Design the sequence.
């Protein structure tokens, strides 16, 4: 990531947000509940964003 110090900060924040979204997914209140549809969508969006950021630095 040489020459892209802003992207390093963005990548770190993105990883933190992705980890928090995964925690939300894992906190299903009832047995058999797969989690909130919003949490699933958030993980999907953050995953797409991670791929986009990686493409910018490679």
Sequence:
């Amino acid at each position: 990531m040489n020459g892209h110090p802003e992207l390093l900060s963005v990548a770190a924040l993105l990883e933190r947000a992705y980890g928090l979204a995964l925690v939300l997914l894992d906190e299903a209140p009832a047995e058999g509940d797969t989690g909130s549809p919003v949490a699933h969508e958030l993980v999907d969006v953050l995953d797409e964003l991670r791929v986009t950021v990686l493409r910018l630095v490679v």
Notes: The helical segments are 5-26, 37-57. The mean pLDDT is 79.
